[in-house]
Amino acid sequence: MSESEVKPLLEMHGIHKRFPGVHALNDVKLSLYAGEVLALLGENGAGKSTLIKMLGGAHQPDEGEIWIEGERVVINSATAAQEFGVAVIYQEFNLIPELTVSENLFLGREKTRFGLIDSPGERQEAVRWLECIGLDIDPDSKCGDLTVAQQQVVEIVKALAVDARILVMDEPSAVLTDQEVERLFQVVRDLKERGIGIIYISHRLDEIDLIADRLLVLRDGQYIGGGAVSETDRDTLIEMMVGRSLEKDFPPRDVTVGEEVLRVEGLNRGKAVREVSFSVKAGEIVGFSGLIGAGRTETMRLIAGADRGESGEVWVNGELISKRSPRDAITAGICLLSEDRKEEGLVLSHSSVDNFGLPNLGRYSRKGWLDNRSEQNEFDRYRDDLAIKVAGPDQLAGELSGGNQQKVVLAKWLARRAHVMLFDEPTRGIDVGAKYEIYQLMNRLAGEGKAIVMVSSELPEILGMSDRIIVMKEGRLVGEVENGPGITQEDILALAMEEPASV
Amino acid sequence: MKKFLGEYGMVLVLFALFVLFSLLTLNRESATGTAAASRLSKEMLATMSSKAEVFVVGAVRKPSEDFARLVAADLGKNEKVNVTQVIGMPRELRQAWDTAEAEGNTPSALVVSGDVLKWTILSALQGESPDLEIIYPTERMVSDFLKRGNLLAIVDRIVVIAVIAIGMTLVILTGGIDLSVGSLVALSAVIATLAIKVMGGLEAGGGAVWAGFLIATLACGAIGAIAGFLVARFEVAPFITTLAVMLIARGAAFMMTGGFSIYQVPDSITWLGRGATFGIPNTVLVLVVFYVAGHIFMRHTRWGRYIYAVGGNEEASRMSGVPVKRILIFVYLVCGLCAGFGGCIQASQLATGAPNLGVMFELSVIAAVVVGGSSLSGGSGRVMGTLIGAFIISVIQNGMNLLGFDSYLQQVVLGAVILFAVLLDKARQKRTSSVKH
């Protein structure tokens, strides 16, 4: 496909971008041809986001050139990007939840008749676009009512409707179920047929084999290498991404299970959580599997006191937690590393140390007076232990890469020395190298006798880490298996999809 | 450098305003000090012919009065001159002149200083008696703005706003807003003066005054706590909650007084707003104590940190075990207490409690907080920044008054300053958010 006489659709070379304290992109090059999918790979903080934000017009390169269809361009705004035929679909969608699908599709370029919006005309055209992409939704439904997968397709349709020739997708599959991912791939293959060039970012290496033609790897802001997907094997790829080879996906561990630490009885919350009861022993890692929306996150939130349910009891070390707020749960020794670290885990506009201290100020203060030094010393200890990369004490948590953010959240909970740790999708959006470190840490915590619950949508992770696997479906526990060499992904999936046992 | 400007930009702005207004209000003025007085009398005695008839004139209760007394005392020690001391207004000078003329003792020289130099009667007298010599000390350049009296006036004018602005800073740091503070000033002043009236009125002792202040401040704190409870427990928007409280408090203040002012208070009520301790005005002391306490609280206590955290990300704070609801109630409680105490200062300054005090104060207070660099979206800002913001606003108002700007133009300028401050804040935010995802 990339024969020398064919002109690339998009070419970037000599790209540099500096932020305070970071050389985010250092002499990066990229080329994309019509009708191909280019996988953009790299750990968090490697510079992928910065690079695609340049294409979307959100950042400008400090040095370097961008060429589109043989012409040098300057993309200095989102409008400019649209004019050059570039559409970027970020992880946070640019859809207005209160507006309908067709209103969103035509936002900013409304069809008018006699100066008034031509809603029927817009609707007709919207139907045509939705049909041609194979999405069966009502153009009059509000975007906020659609599933994440449907919203994503609406974003794609929006890009097509403005004649985008270059489509950039930032981790489109991160929030989708397997079936939804399959549908997404069909759409992507269809777009390829039409001669659209696609830049596809993903952390799931399995997907790359399925969908991408070529790949490009960034590490620490530098271009590391690229080539045809069919000619690059998995190990080489990981080595390119992390700069070293990983022995195994999951670290080994000696399991010594002790007394029961966490016991949950009869948790109920609407339709999301129904009669959930289970227990976790010291030193045990229990994996929670299930489809998206099965009620796993909701269960964790109930245990951690983040939400209030209709009924249910939570016991830690044989003691009932009577009142339940996050504060009470934390006091009782339960910590939740929530799925959404930016919304629930961190105060992005404050420093890492301040974030680290937040649940631990009881220890770093005397009679209400802060002891900043002991707080800083403790943080430094965890920073070295977890290898958190922080530029300085004033660097804001929002300025850290995803992996480092997650490590700051981890540090703040480790310092609590809790008995029960609930990890909700602990490695979502985290690169391969940091994933392994987090797995090691979970093993270490289990080794220290903590009771660990891990919610994960990635079956290999569930199988690789758990001692016991609990499967949820539609708010209920539908299965429980002791993990072992005989257990396969299919076994778990079968449990997750079968009809719930009648109660 | 950029960072320095972000942190201290407002201090530089305040400093620049000081320099600007000092220069713009420079005026020629004759010296009035002790040294100038003795120098002048020595010079006069050296040149004066014997048996000279001299008037020493000073304007009543002005620096020139003291000056006139000093010069008269110096000259009076000498036999050579016959000194008459005239203290008062131009009318008194005319009377003294006419009396002297009738007695045949028409003065040959007038010693004047300061404001007296500007009296038109001087040229009239020179017209009547061409030999009349007007003697005055050498002139020098003085900035009206930098005069002690003017600087204290700035403090007097801003003290109420600045005290309330501490509480408002806390509220704004959590991402909220409190519109009720202006009305609480009126309510507090009314409660305080009514309580003092009940406890003895004009004859009330110092204890009654303090009791009145305490009752009023606590009452406003309680109202603030109720507003905070509504915000925290029922998640009512702070804007609406405090808007309602604003109306209720203002109405209550009018109902309690029937619309009249309460002035049956002893003179001792003015100690707080107009008095001084060890020569330092009490208003200055109040500002120092309150701001130092506010600064230490926000920087060095757990609850101070929690307030920042709640404003930065309420959900993450809650999940980290921060008692978010208690924090929210607390900041509105503190804001109410500050507004209540501000009302007491106001009542003390005016020796009156009136239901129409503090109108629009909430806007000045919010402006001070924002000009001081706090973000209305919460999570970032400084108590000391608010003090700078309050002073910037007060200094601009004072400077414009001295320069004779009309009040409408003053509003335009203040509005522009607030916009400027907000734009500066945005520019600063951009710096920090450019690397965020």
General description of the model:
The complex is a heterodimer of chains A (503) and B (437). Chain A has 503 residues and is an alpha/beta fold. A 6-stranded mixed beta sheet of chain A has the order 6-9-10-3-11-12, sandwiched between helices. In chain A, strands 18-21-22-15-23-24 form a 6-stranded mixed beta sheet, with helices on both faces. In chain A, a hairpin with a 2-residue loop joins strand 7 (112-113) and strand 8 (116-117). In chain A, helix 13 crosses helix 14 (402-414). The mean pLDDT of chain A is 85. The radius of gyration of chain A is 24 Å and the shape is globular. Chain B has 437 residues and is α/β, with parallel strands linked by helices. Chain B folds into 2 domains: 29-142, Response regulator (Rossmann fold), CATH 3.40.50.2300; 148-436, ABC transporter involved in vitamin B12 uptake, BtuC. Chain B has 17 helices and 8 strands. Chain B has helices at residues 2-24, 34-47, 63-76, 90-102, 121-128, 148-173, 181-198, 206-234, 238-257, 271-274, 282-300, 302-312, 314-319, 324-350, 361-371, 383-402, 407-433; strands at residues 26-30, 52-59, 81-88, 109-111, 133-135, 139-143, 276-277, 280-281. A 4-stranded parallel beta sheet of chain B has the order 3-2-4-5, sandwiched between helices. A two-stranded antiparallel ribbon of chain B has the order 1-6. In chain B, strands 7-8 form a two-stranded antiparallel ribbon. In chain B, strand 2 (52-59), helix 3 and strand 3 (81-88) form a beta-alpha-beta unit. Chain A binds chain B through residues 19-20, 22, 24, 49, 304, 306, 325-327, 330-331, 336, 338, 342-350, 354, 357-359, 361-362, 365, 368-370, 372, 396, 398-399, 402, 412, and chain B through 300-306, 308-309, 312-313, 315-323, 379-380, 431-437.
